[in-house]
Amino acid sequence: MHKQRIRAMKPEIDTMPPETIGLDHLRNNLKREQMLEERYHEIDRDNRILLQKMSDIMKHPSVKSGGGDQSAPVSLTRTARKADLQRITQENHAILKRIRQAGPVYNRVDWEEDFRRSGTYLKNSCEYPPSLRNNLKTGKSASTSSLTPISGAKAGKLSATTGSATVFAPGESGYEGNPKDDLRYVLKEGKNLNGQYFLVEMATDGRSLAITAYEAQQQRTLELLVSERNHRKLYRDHKGDYNAIAAKLKLSGDELFIDADEEV
Q1: Could you give the number of structural domains in the chain?
Q2: Residue 39 lies in a domain
Q3: What is the chain's pLDDT, residue by residue, as a tens digit (264 residues)?
Q4: Range of the domain at 217
Q5: b/e for 84-123, b at 16 or more Cβ within 10 A?
Q6: Domain-embedded: residue 6
Q7: Is residue 133 part of a domain?
Q8: Does any domain span residue 73?
Q9: Which residue from 261, 253, 192 is spatially nearest to 230, judged by alpha carbons?
């Protein structure tokens, strides 16, 4: 009985087609058909116009279509435009040629020579050696006024002189020194002593040798006074090259010494 009632059950909602579906204005969209017809008429009109133009061209050929008088110019300004194009091309080639043939204004070799010459002038005019390398590393500016070549009683007769003079060791031919003469600097150069950068100065009065090493980071000055006998020996062993003598400078704590054949 339950299955029979399920099979005989009817829906609550009417799902039948509406009665208005049979009306003519709903089955046929007259507006759409009218718009399509108008579109087709417009296409036909455009086609007729195009066909008429093509027919006129075939009946009356022109210069552009390949017929008619070929001697007539296509453009009235063609010659002028062609001449302007040729002129612009020639000017561009001339500019390119000048650019390729132009030589450099700056010369690297001259720069290096000028830099070397300026460094020589700077070294000759400075009272103390320039500490450019150390300033670049530390970022600080070291004042040369704080450099003291020799302090105390040793500086009684010290007078700094710029440039380098020919210095003879005691006992050498050509030495005409006076013990009371001013000291003359024979070396002003930066040296690396035990991994630290020092400004080394060597000055002599013809007898003893005064060596001063200045370290800018810790603002300390080390001094060494070489006696006349040791100065003469170092001068002869190194053939008068004070740079070679400075290369043997060593540092032991705060003590400065020369590590030669025999320690001085």
Answers
A1: 1
A2: no
A3: 999 999 999 888 888 888 888 787 777 888 999 999 999 999 999 999 999 999 998 888 765 655 555 555 567 888 999 999 999 999 999 999 999 988 878 888 889 999 989 988 888 887 766 654 544 444 444 444 344 443 333 333 333 333 333 444 444 444 444 444 467 888 888 888 878 888 888 888 888 889 998 887 777 888 888 888 888 888 888 888 888 888 888 888 778 888 865 444
A4: 118-258
A5: eeeeeeeeeeeeeeeeeeeeeeeeeeeeeeeeeeeeeeee
A6: no
A7: yes
A8: no
A9: 261
Strands 196-204 and 184-193: antiparallel
Structure tokens belonging to residue 30 = 């007259």
Q: How far apart are the first and last CA of the chain?
A: 134
Query: Could you tell me which residues are beta bridge partners of residue 202?
Result: 187, 211
- Alpha carbon 28 to its chain centroid, in Å, reads 80
Q: How far apart are CA 237 and CA 261, in angstroms?
A: 9
Which pTM was predicted? 0.34
